[in-house]
Structure formats: C-alpha cells, structure tokens
C-alpha cells in the first residue's frame, strides 16, 4: 500500500470533506476522489459513506485510520532518532500551547542555539492539544494540566492565576483586589467554554455555590484585552499573559475568595521517543519558568 494513498486518506478523515482535503493536499478534488477509490479497491472495502451532504468514516475506515496514524507515528519516531544521530542539524518540533506568550522567550533562545530545527507553534485549547498529540499532529504541548491520563507524561512548570483586567478609567481601577462573588455581578468578557481558562472560572464559581455567565464570549486573549482597554467591561485573563504584554491604560486586579488558579506544564505522549530536540526544548522551557 502506497504511503501517498494513506496520506490522502488521513487528510479526508481529518476534514471529512473532499474539497477541503484536496485544497490542504494541493491536488484537485477529482484526483483525490480517484485516489481514495483506488485505496478502497486495494483494501476491498468502502472507507467513507455519504449521508445527505455529510461524509462519515465506515467501520473499515476507522480500522485503517487507527493503524495509519500508528504507522506515521512510528515513521516520525524513526526520523527523530536519525536526527539525534545527526546532532540536531535538522528536524522539526511541533508544539501546541495555551498561549504563544508562554513560549516566546524559549523560542528565541532555542532558535539561536539550533537555527536548523524547524519550530511550529499552534495556539490551541488544552483538549485540542491533547487530541492532536494522540493523532500525531503535535510532539509536545504546553497547557493547563488536566487530570492524570495514562497516555501522557506531565511536567509542571508554574501555577497560573486568573486576573480581572480593566481600563484605568474603570470605577474599580484603584481596587487592590476583587472577590469572586462581587466579580459575578459585573459585565465581563471571557473566553468560550472550550478553553481551560473559562472552565477554571466556571468551576471556581460552581464550587463557591453560584452560577456565573460572561456578558461577552470571545476566542482570543488579545480580543479580551481590547474589551478591557476600551472600557467595554472587564476581562478575565491569565496573569502570565498580562505580565507579558505590559500594556498601558489597563489595571490588573487580583481575584480572591477563592483565587482561580491551575498548574501549567508540558505534556507529551508516553510512547513518544524523547529525542534530543524535544529534550533540549523542554529544558529551555523549564529554565524560563523554574
């Protein structure tokens, strides 16, 4: 079975849309369809089925999907081991993170030492990072540490606390701190529910015995910051992000009784070959925080 056919197959599995998968692969949609039909002929079973306008993976497709992912993972592991023999003169490292600001200093230092290593950093929610680690689309993640999972190794870096960020023209701009229950009465902008920062806030409120809903839901930390700077309302942001921007015109107020907080750390698959590239990047990162 050709390596190329499996690449095409995995692209369709990821997109569940032939046109989008073809665009991603840089080929025409009819070519992709023909190649999938060829693969189905070779395995002797349909891999996809259409129901209405949607595409679904068949049972045979799920089996091939699992084994194809494992195969590509093993090939990547072999390449990582070969790169280590070559002394980090080539290779790549794919990283998912809960905020690019967490990695900026480490990326600069690492690139100065190993300029031939390709770094790819994608900002994702914690669960999205874990999913991409399992599907071999990422090598390591820097995320809010979830509950223990037997599939992953976890390395804590620091404890993240959430802050109430407001314009320096806000009536509470001179406040030393704000209680969680008082915060729930104010118009606040917050990340959507898929993000761990939002889940931290929701869980903290629930444990304190009340329900809290933001006035505005957004999908990036930068957009939340703009809401605060323009005095549209307050924003809930990680302290590490606020410290990294050093923006004028805003105030960062501690949230107390209780403090919404969670450990942030490195996560990677237990069956991942810990090559020198991964090891050196993680050591650089730990030096930044520890």
From TrEMBL:
Record-linked PANTHER family: LYSR SUBSTRATE-BINDING, TRANSCRIPTIONAL DUAL REGULATOR HCAR-RELATED
Record-stated family: Belongs to the LysR transcriptional regulatory family.
Pfam families per UniProt: HTH_1, LysR_substrate
Upper classification of the organism: Bacteria, Bacillati, Bacillota, Bacilli, Bacillales
Gene3D superfamilies according to UniProt: 3.40.190.290, Winged helix-like DNA-binding domain superfamily/Winged helix DNA-binding domain
Alphabetized UniProt keyword annotations: DNA-binding, Transcription, Transcription regulation
Organism: Paenibacillus phytorum
Protein name in the entry: LysR family transcriptional regulator
CDD domains: PBP2_LTTR_substrate
HTH lysR-type domain boundaries: 1-58
């Amino acid at each position: 079975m050709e390596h190329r056919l499996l690449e095409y197959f995995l692209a369709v599995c990821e997109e569940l849309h032939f046109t989008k998968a073809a665009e991603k692969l840089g080929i025409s949609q009819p070519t992709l369809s023909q190649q999938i039909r060829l693969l189905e002929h070779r395995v002797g079973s349909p891999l996809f089925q259409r129901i209405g306008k949607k595409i679904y993976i068949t049972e045979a497709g799920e089996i091939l999907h699992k084994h194809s992912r494992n195969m590509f993972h093993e090939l990547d592991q072999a390449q990582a081991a070969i790169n280590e023999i070559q002394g980090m003169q080539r290779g790549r490292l794919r990283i998912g993170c809960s905020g690019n600001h967490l990695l900026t200093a480490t990326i600069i230092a690492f690139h100065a030492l190993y300029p031939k290593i390709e770094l790819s950093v994608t900002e994702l929610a914690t669960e999205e990072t874990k999913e991409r680690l399992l599907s071999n689309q990422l090598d390591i993640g820097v995320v809010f540490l979830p509950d223990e999972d037997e599939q992953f190794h976890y390395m804590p870096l620091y404890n993240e606390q959430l802050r109430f960020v407001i314009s320096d023209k806000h009536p509470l701009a001179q406040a030393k701190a704000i209680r969680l229950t008082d915060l729930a009465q104010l118009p606040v902008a917050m990340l959507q529910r898929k993000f761990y920062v939002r889940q931290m806030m929701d869980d903290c409120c629930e444990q304190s015995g009340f329900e809290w809903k933001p006035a505005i839901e957004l999908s990036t930390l930068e957009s939340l910051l703009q809401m605060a700077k323009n005095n549209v309302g307050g924003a809930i942001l990680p302290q590490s992000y606020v410290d990294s921007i050093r923006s004028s015109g805003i105030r960062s107020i501690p949230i107390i009784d209780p403090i919404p907080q969670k450990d942030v750390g490195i996560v990677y698959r237990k069956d991942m070959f810990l090559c020198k590239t991964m090891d050196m990047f993680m050591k650089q990162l730990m030096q930044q925080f520890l």
